[in-house]
Amino acid sequence: MIGAPILRVVLSKPSGAIGVTLVVGHVMLAVLSPLVLPHDPIAQSADLILQMPSLSYPFGTDRLGRDILSRVMLGGRSAMLIATLATLVAMVWGTVVGLLLALIGGRIDTHMMRIVDALSSIPGILIVMIFVAALGVGAAALIPILGYSYGLSVVYIARAAALDFVARDFVLAAQARGEARSTILIREILPNVRDTLAVQGAMQWSWLMLGITSLSFLGLGVAPPTPDWGLMIADARGVMPTAPWAVLWPMAMLSTLIVGVNLAADAFAKALGVDQQLRTVAA
Amino acid sequence: MTLLRVQDLTISRTGSGAHIVRSANFALDSGQTLGIAGESGCGKSTLLLALMGVVKPGLAVTGGLVHVMGQDLRLIAPEAMRRLRGQSVAMVPQSAAMALTPTMRVGAQLAEAMAVHDAIPPDTIAARTTTLFARVRLPEPDQIGARYPHELSGGQMQRAAIAMALACGPKLLLLDEPTTGLDVTTQAGILDLLDELRRETGMAMVCVSHDIGVLARLTAQVAVMYAGRIVEDRPTANLLTRPAHPYARALMASVPRIESPGLPPSIHGSPPPPGETGRGCAFAPRCSRAHAACEEEPALSPLTEGGRIACHAPDHGPLAPTEMPDPVVAQEAGAPIIAVRGLVVQYRRASLLSRLTRRSLPDPVLAGISLTLAKGEILGLVGESGSGKSTILRAIAGLWPPSAGSITLDGANLPARVTERDRTALRRVQVVFQNPDASLNPRHTVREILAQPLRLYFNASPTEVEARARRLIADVRLDPAHLGRRPAQLSGGERQRVALARAFAAEPDVILCDEVTSALDVSVQASVLALIHDLCHARGTSCLFVAHDLAVVAALCDRVAVLHRGRIVEEGPARTVCSTPEHPYTRSLIEAVRRASDVRGHSFGES
């Protein structure tokens, strides 16, 4: 989908190169870390409580004497998995609805968008609270819930991107030929908004990553004792004055990932010309 | 002192170093006029901008100089340059609609243009605004300044833009396609105004246009550019009647003329992409007179009868009158393939509010149109913008359901909406749109573009699609290599050919062409017209050809219908309508075409 020339443009800029390196590094770490763990991330030890970073425990240990390096290496895995699946859900339904509304237009579009406006006004966190805190569902249930609430913003983006194209003559030409609406969506419009949506998807993913980590921090996401950055920060915030490393490492991991995704998405957006595409109305 | 002196001006791309304009040389005194003619991409607009000291990003002046009133534009300080622009040199941009700020009243914009240059005492600005509006013949000059650009018509916006250019009394006026996109009657009015202003003020003018008629009307001298170079530069009347450079000759000949119906000849091949010329004469590959010497680039050298030419093999004979091809006889005006009866299109139904306030309905776009298109016939539909000509086409295509009236295809009723038509009815009527940039999906290859109708109407298999696409691309005289390209990699003419190939892929009985050549260069237009003619006649396809240019319609069509304010005012064989128009509106239309392109009726600069 993304050709070598585009990748070369992205890597030629420092920000793009840093972003791609950070993302690739994080993904590799998440995939390969189970093979190279220095210690058992769950094993507690009363003798090793809040150790300073040392040779055998380079990142130090936490309140329960667990190795922070091992936990940090694994701590993004659950959140990344949930974020990826939730992004897929959000992108698919948001894109389908957004493109359809742009193509149909008229009164249906206006009314549906007001409903989307209304739904967007309900904070996503509230919906998560209702489901997770009140009904007690597990982390897997976060996928459809987050997918729904983040998908609302995709509807706006997809619709806006597609509106640029639905008024063009090639869509009119397809309508005059008598092409089915689904064919027009998939063959005529989707290829033109694909880049915009891909970049949007990357941004969505980073927001979801932050959202899930926040939920874990609040105790509504990943359940202990699974190593997770949000849980680790929550767990260590009481000992921050005495053992700052216990919060520092998971925070550093999360921020490098988020910054990396944003830098990379930005560089791809520029290389693909997404910025201009959203702004120009007619060729 | 020479007002404008351009010497060996060369403008190149900063990256590749490719030359966009090469060694341009000319000079202009006050009151003199120069036209620059050429096809898109020949460098004429780049050259014009350089006369104001502007080069577009990505380009740079790499040689030569531009002197305006003795000042070298390369050495001039930014502040002096700012003063120079507006007070000495001013430009009327190509599209006034784009150049005027939509959120500002036109009077305020004009006042701003004067205030910026501090040339006019502030207390006289208001009075001068009115004077300027009066000078460009805008109605109610004391009140029109309170309007916003969208409240003006296209011609009025162009007049306002001219007023802005005149605000500080420039010595040199630069015009970039001053009448493109305007109706022919409006166009004639703007050209009259410019000519008058030049005579009153004695300012010099440089006008860039692809339309020879515009230059004939406005300038005493014309330089023809090809691939970044001036190839012929002569007094206008001389150039129009006896051009000597083969390219200039072909360009003049490709203009359709209302006096001599029949398809104008077209130039084979296409110009080299900007900056990619070899060592020899850039036109040699397309030139019928090219010989061995043409491998060396000819210098621009003086002609005995005045002017300059860059050609090893000039043709000094008079421009042969377009040989009259056999009159295109409508094929035995057969049974109508399309019959339109009492077609009415109205913008919208009266709302409750407007019914309560008794506001009358806007005039209908189409007020009861009836016309027939016979099998194998090419019917031209002419009118100014807003006359409803495109609306008829869209109604037939099912894209704009009429409020009343019926459309039949081969005697069978054609449903109003495209979504209600069956596949066969859809296949039999195909549309080609005005602008191929917009009507071809930029993400698709030509192969994919042609595959769509083949799959939709014939359920063609991939091998069948490939075979048919190859045949179609050859039918529109393109190379099979084009199949793998995307629209952005094609020229405007090639894109329109692809759009035609897509329409003919459906093997239609009727094609509806909506201003299909108005976005093309005149030489490309000639070849696309020839292609439409050949394709329709070879296949017996009927064609409804909508255009605003009567000369184009006269060249291609068997029969013409003239549309005015939603009604057909005259209808008949193309030749009859053009030679002996009955309706006053048709007569004024023909008169305007003549006035916009007539050489004899124009007075040359006092030189």
Helices and strands, with pairings:
The complex is a heterodimer of chains A (283) and B (607).
Chain A: H1 4-12, H2 14-32, H3 68-74, H4 77-104, H5 106-120, H6 124-135, H7 142-166, H8 169-177, H9 181-217, H10 229-236, H11 245-272, H12 274-279
Chain B: E1 4-13, E2 19-28, E3 33-37, H1 44-50, E4 59-68, E5 71-72, H2 78-87, E6 89-92, H3 96-99, H4 106-116, H5 125-135, H6 154-166, E7 172-176, H7 184-201, E8 204-209, H8 212-218, E9 221-226, E10 229-235, H9 236-241, H10 246-253, E11 301-302, E12 308-309, E13 336-345, H11 352-356, E14 366-374, E15 378-382, H12 389-397, E16 404-409, E17 412-413, H13 423-428, E18 429-432, H14 436-439, H15 446-458, H16 462-475, H17 492-505, E19 510-514, H18 522-539, E20 542-547, H19 550-556, E21 559-564, E22 567-573, H20 574-579, H21 584-597
Parallel strand pairs in B: 3-8, 3-9, 6-7, 7-8, 15-20, 15-21, 18-19, 19-20
Antiparallel strand pairs in B: 1-2, 1-4, 4-5, 9-10, 10-12, 11-12, 13-14, 13-16, 16-17, 21-22
Helix pairs in contact in B: 4-5, 4-6, 6-7, 7-21, 15-16, 15-17, 16-17, 17-18
